[in-house]
């Protein structure tokens, strides 16, 4: 096969980060391959929203099925492999701990075995996470801080993170872990708290909803903007050596702060709409996360470009624009329309 452009394979291209990363790599003139899993209703709305779906070669891949991983890698023959696929919702990992461990943890070991045997020359990015720190509360969390995972999701991601290090050292492969803190955007899934808030605030603003129900509003997170974070992923794979590195903003805010900022931006007072519902509490939660991005600044020359206030504005404005367009009868690819009301969804603890 004659190769001209650099080739990238992104697992989980239908997710938030997959879509933004695909856009970034296309803009950099990569040939982009992306994996999806077969579901009854196609889920390409993010790629359509960004106007890039037709520019990507889409391949099936299921992380619990090694044969599909082999086929995707042999077909795409990537120079760079970004493993973003995961069961990524922490709340659901308490409901599906075995599935989450199988996909987000063991799935990465399956992928590493395929890399070792079928494409040892590839540069691999693994989507590690600040959730691995758990409720550490030791100030700024860095590459040196120990991990105390507090959910099946975090346990699975730590298995993946450690496996990447083991394979890197054992077989001399180019494998890097990006330890990314929370990053959000208008393409964030509706089950995550930021987008849940901005979507509901938009509906309240336009008279389509009357309240918003949340769980642990005192929890704080280091929230950045997803397009900034996919730039960091790319820089990680351009570095001369494989490495493990934190990507964060060095700031943190509570869920209540986020809700307050979103309502203020929409000209509302959150106290008029907030309902606290125990249904959204987790059996074990991480209450404080704040990352130290010094190494990312020094080694990658990376810095976040979008502040917390701007992130909130971007997300609220985007959800208001979508619901306004909907009210005017315009159609666009978008998740909120078909998302079930959380009032009808039962959660097992
Ligand atoms: P996301 O929106 O939930 O996307 C996850 C992707 O994984 C989707 O494309 C999903 O496909 C795919 N997937 C799920 N189960 C799979 C399976 N069994 N086999 C193959 N693919 C599967 O997540 P994201 O926010 O873009 O995050 C990307 C990665 O970064 C994830 O690994 C996440 O754990 C990690 N991470 C995220 C953050 C953050 O703040 N966003 C921070 C740190 C780390 P469907 O569309 O079909 O569901
Ligand atoms: O929760 C609290 C909740 O689900 C944030 C994933 O991308 O980032 C994400 O995980 C906080 C938690 O994200 C509601 O209890 C309150 O303390 O938005 P979240 P997360 O758990 O931080 C990390 C870095 C990842 O790696 C993950 O893949 O908000 N919270 N009330 C709520 N959370 C939700 N979802 N819904 C609520 O109603």
Task: Describe this structure as you would to a colleague.
This protein is of the alpha/beta class and 349 residues long. It has 2 domains: 201 residues, 3-Layer(aba) Sandwich (Rossmann fold), CATH 3.40.50.720; 109 residues, UDP-galactose 4-epimerase, domain 1, CATH 3.90.25.10. 40% of the residues lie in helices and 15% in strands. The protein contains 11 helices and 13 strands. The strands form 4 sheets. Strands 3-2-1-4-5-6-11 form a 7-stranded parallel sheet, sandwiched between helices. It has a two-stranded parallel sheet with strand order 7-10. The relative contact order is 0.13. The mean pLDDT is 96. The structure holds NADP nicotinamide-adenine-dinucleotide phosphate and ligand F7E. NADP nicotinamide-adenine-dinucleotide phosphate binds next to helix 1 and strand 5.
What key attributes describe this structure?
2 domains; 40% helix; binds ligand F7E; binds NADP nicotinamide-adenine-dinucleotide phosphate; 349 residues; 7-stranded parallel beta sheet; alpha/beta; Rossmann fold; UDP-galactose 4-epimerase, domain 1; two-stranded parallel ribbon
SSE blueprint and pairings:
Elements: E1 7-11, H1 16-27, E2 31-36, H2 45-49, E3 57-60, H3 66-76, E4 80-83, H4 90-95, H5 97-118, E5 123-129, H6 152-171, E6 174-180, E7 183-184, H7 193-205, E8 212-214, E9 220-221, E10 224-225, H8 226-238, E11 244-247, E12 253-254, H9 255-265, E13 274-276, H10 294-300, H11 308-327
Parallel strand pairs: 1-2, 1-4, 2-3, 4-5, 5-6, 6-11, 7-10, 8-13
Antiparallel strand pairs: 9-12
Helix pairs in contact: 1-8, 3-5, 5-6, 7-9, 7-11, 9-11
Bound molecules: NADP nicotinamide-adenine-dinucleotide phosphate and ligand F7E.
Ligand F7E binds at residues 88, 90-91, 129-131, 181-182, 191-193, 196, 214-217, 219, 221, 255, 280, 282, 285.
């Amino acid at each position: 096969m004659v190769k001209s452009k650099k080739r990238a394979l992104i697992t989980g291209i239908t997710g938030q980060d997959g879509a933004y990363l695909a856009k970034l790599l296309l803009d950099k003139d990569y040939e982009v391959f992306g994996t999806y899993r077969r579901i009854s209703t196609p889920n390409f709305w993010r790629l359509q929203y960004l106007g890039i779906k037709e520019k990507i070669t889409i391949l099936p891949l299921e992380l619990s099925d090694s044969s599909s991983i082999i086929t995707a890698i042999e077909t795409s023959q990537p120079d760079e492999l970004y493993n973003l696929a995961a069961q990524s919702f922490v709340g659901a990992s308490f409901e599906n701990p075995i599935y989450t461990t199988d996909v987000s943890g063991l799935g990465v070991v399956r992928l590493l075995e395929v890399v070792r045997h079928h494409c040892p020359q590839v540069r691999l990015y693994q989507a590690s996470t600040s959730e691995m720190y758990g409720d550490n509360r030791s100030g700024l969390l860095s590459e040196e801080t120990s991990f105390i995972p507090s959910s099946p999701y975090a346990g699975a991601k730590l298995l993946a993170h450690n496996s990447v290090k083991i394979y890197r050292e054992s077989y001399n492969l180019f494998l890097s872990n990006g330890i990314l803190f929370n990053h959000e955007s208008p393409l964030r899934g509706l089950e995550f708290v930021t987008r849940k808030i901005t979507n509901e605030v938009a509906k309240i603003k336009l008279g389509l909803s009357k309240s918003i129900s949340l769980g642990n509003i005192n929890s704080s997170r280091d929230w950045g903007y997803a397009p900034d974070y996919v730039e960091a992923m790319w820089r990680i794979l351009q570095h001369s050596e494989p490495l493990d590195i934190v990507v964060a903003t060095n700031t943190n805010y509570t869920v209540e702060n986020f809700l307050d900022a979103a309502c203020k931006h929409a000209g509302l007072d959150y106290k008029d709409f907030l309902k606290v519902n125990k249904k959204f509490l987790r059996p074990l939660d991480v209450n404080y996360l704040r990352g130290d991005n010094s190494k990312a600044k020094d080694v990658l020359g990376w810095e976040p470009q979008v502040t917390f206030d701007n992130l909130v504005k971007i997300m609220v404005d985007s959800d208001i624009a979508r619901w306004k367009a909907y009210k005017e009868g315009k159609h666009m690819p978008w998740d909120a329309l078909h998302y079930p009301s959380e009032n009808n969804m039962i959660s097992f603890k």
